[in-house]
Specification:
The structure is a single chain. The protein has helices at about 40-50, 55-60, 75-80, 100, 120-125, 145-155, 160-180, 220-285, 295-325, 360-365, 365-390, 430-500, 505-540, and strands at about 110, 130-135, 185-195, 200-215, 395-405, 415-425. By secondary structure, it is of the alpha+beta class. The protein has one domain (about 65-190, about 205-540): Outer membrane efflux proteins (OEP) (Up-down Bundle), CATH 1.20.1600.10. A four-stranded antiparallel beta sheet has the order 3-4-5-6. It has a two-stranded antiparallel ribbon with strand order 1-2. The protein is elongated. The two termini are about 65 Å apart. InterPro entries: MdtP/NodT-like (IPR010131), OMP_efflux (IPR003423). This is Efflux transporter outer membrane subunit. GO terms for molecular function: efflux transmembrane transporter activity. It is found in: Cell membrane.
Amino acid sequence: MTQTTAPRRAPGIGARHPHAPAPAAPARPGEVRGARPFAPLALALAALLALGGCAGLARSGYERPALAVPSRWSGANACTAAGCGRDPAGQGGAAPTATTAATAPPTATIPGLAPDDSGNARLARASEVPALALDGWWRDLGDPALDGLIDRLLVRNNDLAAATQRVRQARLSAGLQADALVPAASASLSGTRGRSLSGQGRTRSNAASASLAWEADLWGRLAASRDAADWEARATDADRAATALSLVGTAASLWLDLGYVNERIALGEANIANARRVLELVQLQYRAGSVSSLEVDEARQTLAALEAAQTSWLLERDQDRHAFSILLDLAPGADANPWAAEPRRLPEAALPAIPAGLPAELLARRPDLAAAEARLRSTLASADATRLGYYPRFSLTGTLGGSSAALADVLANPVATLGAGLTLPFLQQTERQLAVASGRAAYAEAVASFRQSFLSALADVEDALSARAQYEARARPLEESLAAARRAEAAYELRYRAGSVALRTWLDAQRTRRDAEAALAANRLDRLLNRIALHQALGGRAGG
């Protein structure tokens, strides 16, 4: 706006000078004095705002890249053919069990971050990180101690806390980009003091001003930058969910491995006790003269080998405990057993079936795929922002301020100014073409990465399903092998005591039985770990 001050007449002067210009004609109704200098500015602004209606046409529409999605899982057929005794539901098309269908899946929650309490509504919205719900797939293992530890992990784990802070950073960055669409206000206050070198005079000046600047987002460049940051924030939130899925899988795997190791330690102790009894028996026979020292050495060698092997299992248990302590934000070794009850063996009860669902459902279930697609959309929006940055830019600036020698009179006679700017960056042809081509290449790279991530996700599920079928098919022969090894060991013991076979024959039968026990226990661990791998490959509770 402008301020007009009428000139004051000098005393005694009442007539117009002969050569002075004639006074302006009276303003007609509806006419505003001083408006003509702003007419070109108003016309330019109206034209550019009209062009701004085409902003939506300048943005690129997103279409999900074409993906080769199979209609069903081939590994599910292999599992059906193998019998999969502990997963009777087979593939997703089979009837779900009561555990998977009739009962609502229990959930767990990853804590979020409270909004900033400074009183700024936009800052509060940007800084808040909502809590994230998980479907609780690990509760199917039926171990309350593990459930409690994972609940504790979701609250205390440092990797998950760092992922949550990255979500806050991304949301704040998105808030900064959104703030660029809002007029920016600023204010200044200055004062100067001067003195001549001769000391004859002093000067002082004070000034204050407030300004408001706004760039008209005619083509959607600022909106594209805002959308790119928003999609990146969504991708970061999906990264947090993927981190949680991985950490829960790691915790459940460590817990199962602890049970397996404790079971192997118990078996090792039983085998060592049995080897000691054999050694005592052979030593009695040696003293009686019925066997040679060779048999004593063979029995002693068997005992020593078992004792040496036992140390490996004790070391693995310590390593599992240390790894679990780190997951719970505890110093490794500070407490040998930071949880209430450590598993003594692997679970043996039948577990609920895991329906695999359909391959196309992976896009909705796996958080890493959600993150990859969100970053794909962020890259597209960034490419749009780069391209639209070379379209004409129009900005408005308004300033209100004043100056005076006395600080108290700075705003006594304020002056208002209105400015407009038009930038034509499209004249930089080479730079524009290079930048736009770079943005397109980045989007093409993101498309290829997204397609590769989806194919890798398909492979994860197929691998887990194939492994499930093979582990299940291997279980029955291993059980039969152990039963036969136990019968053979008992028979050779009777023959040795009767003197019909050498000690080595009995010791070999014992080793065969121990190997069969180890193979069956390892198969049970493989089947349980495969459940975890399948849950992770499917993005959580399968078929949920």
